[in-house]
């Protein structure tokens, strides 16, 4: 079973920031928080991951609370192409994708 | 790099037929996995491999076989197709070891069993 809890759906206006929450209250010390997204039934795409510090890359920012029990993925200026299902996954670093347990994710709809 | 390539993209089978879904990666990744995704659901792990010659079962292995004779290829065999195997199948690869677990996914094979 997935070890994360996400809202099933969210809406965001184009050009605004999209903030996607994730609860992972049972995360253990060696587990990272990973975010993937799946656009229109294509293969999932890696977005970002982090352990305890906030992370930023060209796609998004990841904010992890100090107690590591929750996190927020931020898409700073959402576009229509960001409409997708977003998956929050906790997993130990290293090894292969077999360690990724996918839940149902959050369906983000970006509206014009 | 082409990344992870899956063939075919679409397939219709009759109940009882067998077939092989192909997956190839050109990133020299050690780890490869097969997932299935049913409508409205997340991905579920079928089989995975941590290197050539090594495979193991995932969450839903029944009705599927895999082998890993080369680093590049990881085919998934349906032994006797059943309507319950109608799904979208994704292959993934990662570098493995102690590196990052960023996984690269193929574009999927949409299988219908009638």
Key terms for this structure?
A: 112 residues; mainly beta; five-stranded mixed β-sheet; 9 strands; 0% helix; B: 114 residues; seven-stranded mixed β-sheet; four-stranded antiparallel β-sheet
Kindly summarize this structure in a few lines.
The complex is a heterodimer of chains A (112) and B (114). Chain A is mainly beta and 112 residues long.
Question: Care to describe what's here?
Answer:
- The complex is a heterodimer of chains A (about 110) and B (about 110).
- Chain A has about 110 residues and is mainly β.
- Helix content of chain A is about 0%, strand content about 45%.
- Helix content of chain B is about 0%, strand content about 50%.
- Chain B has no helices and 11 strands.
- The termini of chain B are far apart.
- Classes of the chains: A mainly beta (about 110), B mainly beta (about 110).
- The interface between A and B is medium-sized, with 27 and 35 residues.
Specify the number of helices of chain A.
Answer: 0
Quote the average pLDDT of chain A.
Answer: 92
The most extensive interface, with participating residues per chain, is: A-B, 27 and 35 residues
Beta-strand content of chain A: over 45%
Runs of chain B in which pLDDT lies below 50 for 5 or more consecutive residues are none
Q: What percentage of the residues of chain B does DSSP assign to strands (E)?
A: over 45%
Strand count, sense and barrel status of the largest sheet of chain A are: 5 strands, mixed
Q: Assembly type of the shown chains? A: heterodimer
Profile the largest sheet of chain B: 7 strands, mixed
Separate helix tally of chain B: 0
The helical percent of chain A reads under 10%
Query: What general form of chain B does the structure show?
Result: globular
Gap between N and C termini of chain A, in Å?
Answer: 35 Å
- How much helix is in the residues of chain B? under 10%
Mean pLDDT across all amino acids of chain B: 93
Shape of chain A, please?
A: globular
What is the number of E strands of chain A?
9
